[in-house]
């Protein structure tokens, strides 16, 4: 079998190369895009860190609701739940999540409201613990951190979901926050949260699951609003600089698309934008 | 009604999970803990088969001692449970994983976007492709968070984009709900056909 596979691999057509790049669509333009975005990010992060004025991130509706949700939980004497299932430590969702987590944990520590994080990744759980401990310390309440503040449930989709649904019904949090990349469990979780009357805030980039969060949650941050809100809440210059750099990147994309569309209408065969992106 | 043990276990588990619709109860809780325990056990077995066994049995024990270096870095993660003085060591494997993932994203993520950007304007032939282009531009403007926030034109474009996205979400919601109903029907069929034998389909 392995002999057959080796023969088949030898017969397969080898992709042409351009220097160190494999000559496939977008290999070189993709590389330069990565370089341009890296330079932009470095520039804006350095600017933000050195205190130079940065464009403001626009206010997003779900963000005001966080203070309201924690306030309500404090009045009712019930906990605030913040859950993330799939995102590991290298995921962009986790970087955004830590922005939310730090903010919410600090608020909860100030008001002496129980805060619970349910993580589906053991690596993320370790970082989550560090973020929450740091927030409690900043709020002057390091003693408020309890061993069950961060709960790790193995990341098997429905085992995790049944565990979280059970916790929701048993502990009846006054506020739930679903931050990160969720799959089909979104509907079950948001529905159980709605049944217990919790204020619910969701943020995800999974477009297939957004409709369920929109239907069952009080506030939903859609798509990239998740990252922007994380940066807005954390006030971390690195995250803010990243959002500004991303916006510049999006403006460049818009320019390319408009130019490409005009060139396509004038002469499809000589569309230089298309050729450039294909390179 | 079937006498098969496997079906009976499936039926009891199904009814236990369905009982959550009435209220949280010990019957549901038992199966909740069972499924969590099973998933943890499954993860342990899979980790042994896919990572630990290839690492020790097929690697280190066959003389590939260089594998002990990443192994030692991985073991640092357990310093999370060490006395506070040594806990900082657990951050090294985490930092390595973060670095690997960010590097991977930078190397491989931009290329598919080039194809997607070309796709927005390369097929401008009919009304659909123009509608697609206009919505694409509107949605990109919606997701710009820092520039043009005070401009009325940008505000109107964002409102248009929001309506377009809500239309998509409505369609997606309808499709997925139908998919979920088909899952429910599958479970009901299991109860009515495989267990009770009341219906015969297929």
Give a description of the structure.
The complex is a heterodimer of chains A (about 280) and B (about 200). Chain A folds into two domains: about 15-55 and about 240-279; about 60-235, Rossmann fold (3-Layer(aba) Sandwich). Chain A starts with a helix and ends with a helix. Chain A has helices spanning about 1-10, 25-50, 60-75, 90-110, 120-140, 155-170, 185-195, 210-215, 225-235, 235-265, 270-279; strands spanning about 15-20, 20, 80-85, 115-120, 150, 175-180, 200-205, 220. The longest helix of chain A has 30 residues, at about 235-265. In chain A, strand 1 (about 15-20) and strand 2 form a beta hairpin. With about 280 residues, chain A is of the alpha/beta class. The radius of gyration of chain A is 23 Å and the shape is elongated. Chain A is about 60% helix and about 10% strand. The mean pLDDT of chain A is about 90. Chain B has seven helices and no strands. Chain B is about 70% helix and about 0% strand. In chain B, helix 1 crosses helix 2 (about 25-55), helix 1 (about 5-20) runs antiparallel to helix 7 (about 150-195) and helix 6 (about 125-140) crosses helix 7 (about 150-195). Chain B has about 200 residues and is mainly alpha-helical. Chain B has helices spanning about 5-20, 25-55, 70-75, 90-110, 110-120, 125-140, 150-195. Classes of the chains: A alpha/beta (about 280), B mainly alpha (about 200). Chains A and B meet through helix 2, helix 5, helix 6, helix 8 and helix 10 of A and helix 2, helix 4, helix 5, helix 6 and helix 7 of B.
